[in-house]
Amino acid sequence: MARHFQDFQRITTDPKILGGKPCVRGLRLSVQRVLEVLSDNPSWEELQLDYPELTRDDIREVLAFAAASLNEYFLPMDTSAA
Predict the structure, then answer these.
(1) What's the CATH code of the domain at 46?
(2) Domain interval for residue 25
(3) What is the distance between the alpha carbons of residues 59 and 16, in angstroms, rounded to a whole number?
(4) Most buried among 7, 24, 26, 56, by the most CB within 10 A?
(5) In whole angstroms, how far apart are CA 30 and each of 21, 40, 63?
(6) Structural domains counted in the chain
(7) For the chain, what is the HEC assignment?
(8) In a domain, 80, yes or no
(9) Residue 23: what are its φ and ψ, rounded to 5°?
(10) Predicted TM-score (pTM) of this structure
(11) What does the mean pLDDT of the chain come to?
(12) Domain assignment present for 22
């Protein structure tokens, strides 16, 4: 059964889909994959050519979800150069 994240109606999680990774609208398309594609080529148009089921609103919500996720998790700083 797919569940939504609070404040993110297009981002879902379901243990039966991609092991419960956050996905776009219950599709087999993870938030992580969308971000990986955008990091290599930030063209929304090309992303939509590769994934025609993805809408601009989906992409906006993926980016907002990723930004909100940073409030919950911090990467350790590399202190070796200090």
Answers:
(1) 1.10.10.10
(2) 3-67
(3) 23
(4) 24
(5) 6, 16, 12
(6) 1
(7) CCEEECCEEEEEECCCCHHHCCEECCCCCEHHHHHHHHHHCCCHHHHHHHCCCCCHHHHHHHHHHHHHHCCCCCCCCCCCCC
(8) no
(9) -125, 165
(10) 0.83
(11) 89
(12) yes
